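3.2 Worked example (two chains)
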Amino acid sequence: MSNAPASTDVLEALQRLIEVVAQLRSPEGGCPWDLAQTPESLTPYIIEEAYEAVDAIRQGQPEAIADELGDLLLQVVLQAQIAQEYGQFDLNDVAQAITEKLIRRHPHVFGEVQVDGVDEVHRNWEQIKTTEEQATSDSAIARLSPRLSRYARSLPPIIAGMKISKKAAAVGFEWDTVDGVWDKFREEMDEFQEAIASGDKAHQQDELGDVLFTLINLARWYDLDPSVALADTNHRFVQRFSMLEAASDRPLQDYSLAEFERLWQQVKAQIAQAASQNHEDE
C-alpha cells in the first residue's frame, strides 16, 4: 500500500458516507433515532467506539480495526452534520482545522526547522502549543492550569492523572528522586487507612484518590503505563475466572473461600505451565 494522496475511490467513499448521514438526519424520510440525537446524546458513543477501536488494535485484527475505525468515523461525521444543521461548522471546517494544526506543529516537515530525534519533535510540539495558548489568552503568560482542568474534565481518570502528572512535572512540580514518591505513597496509604477507620465515605473517597494519583506518579517515574497495566490485569482476571468456572463442579456460590483459593492457585499454575511450554516451543 502506497503513501500517495487519497485516491478518487477514497474521496468518493467519504462523500457517500457524508450523504448517507445527511439522509439519516433529513426531516423528510430520515431515521427517527438519528433525528432525535444531539451532540450531547452522542458523546457516549464516541467514547464507546474509541475504546472498541483501541481494543481491536491491541488484538491485532485488521478487519475488526477497519470496522471499528468506521464506527468512530461515523461519530465524527454525525457531529459535523448536526453542527452544520445548527449553523456552527461543517466537516470541511473540521478537516481544515486539523490540517492547519498538523502543518503548524510540524515545522520540521513543512518548514525549515531541523530536529534531532523524537524528543526534540515532542519539545517543539509542546512549545508551539504554549505559543498558541498565549496568543488566545488575555494574559501574557500561558497558564498550565486550564490545560490540566481540560484533561481532568475530558479524559478517563487514569489517563488524565498521567497527563496532569507529566505536565506538572515538566514545569518543575516534581520530587527530587523516586524515593520521595515512595514516601508519599506510604503516607497516602496511612491516611487512606485512617479514613477507612473514620467511616466518613467522602473522606475515604478523597484519600483513595490520593493513593491512586500517587501510584500514577510512581508509574510515570518508572516509565510504565497504568492504563495498560490495569487493562492487562483485567484481562488476566477474566481469563483466570473463566478457567476457574470451567474447573468448578458445582455453583460458585457453594464454594468456601479456601476452596476458591485452591482453585485460583490451580488455574494460575495451569496458565504458567502453558506459558512455559509456549516459550519452549518458540
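3.2.1 Second chain
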Amino acid sequence: MPALPSAPSRLALPDGRAAFGVYQGIVPDLDWRLALTPMQRLTRCLRHKRWQYAALAHDDFLIAMAVVDVGWNGTAFSYLFDRRQGKVLAAASANGLPGYAAKVENRAFGDARFERFGQRFVFERAGDALRLRVASRGLSLEAEIDLSAMPPVLAVVAPANYLAHSTHKSGGLPARGEARCAAGRYDLSAATASLDYSNGLLARETSWRWASAHGPGIGFNLQQGYMGSEENAVWLDGRLWRVGAADFDYQPDAPLAPWRIRSADGLVDLVFTPEGARREDKNLIVAASRYVQPVGRFDGALIDPDSGARHPVRALAGVAEDHVSRW
C-alpha cells in the first residue's frame, strides 16, 4: 500500500475549495474562512467545533482529558479509570462560555484551556512536549507527553454533516508525570499517550461510534458516523495506513457487553471487552449530549496490507465510545 500523501499547508485551497483528503503529517494552517460563503462566515460561530483530547493508557489505569469549544459554548472533562477495580475513581467536568472559559488554539496538539470556578484543564505546547494539567477538587494531573519521536500523524480533511471537518490523530507516545486523587497517586512513567485534535464545521445534530487504542509501536483509530470511513487507520512499527469502513457490532443498551469491531477490507478484526465506563448525559435546553465511553481491552488482529501478515492484538488498553450531540 503506498504511503499517504503529505499533509497540505492549509485546510482550504486558493479557490476556496476544502483540501479534502487523507494525509500523513500536520496541516499548519487550520483557518476555514477561505472555504466559507459570506453567509456561512456570519454564522460560523454556531457551526465551528474544536476540541483536543488526550488519553494516557496504563496496564492498571487510564486517564482521559479534553477541552471542547463548540463556538457558542465550551466544556472540559477529565477522569481517572482504575482498570483493576473496573470503575472511575475520580472525575471532573465543567461547562462555560466560549472564548472566556474554553479556548482551543487553531493548531494540532497545541494550546487549549478551560478555567472556571477554580477548575483548570490545560494543554500547553512547549517545543516537543505537550503538557497537561488538571486542577479540580477530585482530580489533579501533571503530565508531559513527549512528541519528539512522534509516529506518523494522521491528518484528515473530509466532508461532514454540515460542511467539512478536519482531524489529527497520533499515538504510541511516551509520557511522564502523575495523577492524584483520594485513592492515591498514579505514576505515568509506564503510560502510553494518544492525541486527538479536531477542528471543523459540523451540523447541530452529530453522532458517532469510535474506538482507539495505542501502545508502543501499535495503535488504531476507528470511527463510524459523521466522517464516514475517512479517519480509520492503523499504526504498526512506525508505519501508518488507512483501513476501510468500520462496523461496530455492540449493544447500545448494554455498552459493557463485548463489542466486535471489524473493517470492511478485512484488515481489522477486534473484540473489545469493556472493564467499566464513563458516562455523561447532559440536557442544557439549547444543547444536549448522550455519551458513554467504555474503557477496556482489545484483542484480535491487524493485517498488514502489503505483506498480508497477521499481527496479533493482545490486551491492548483503550476506549470505545457511543456519542450523540445536539450542539
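3.3 Remarks
The longest helix spans residues 38-42.
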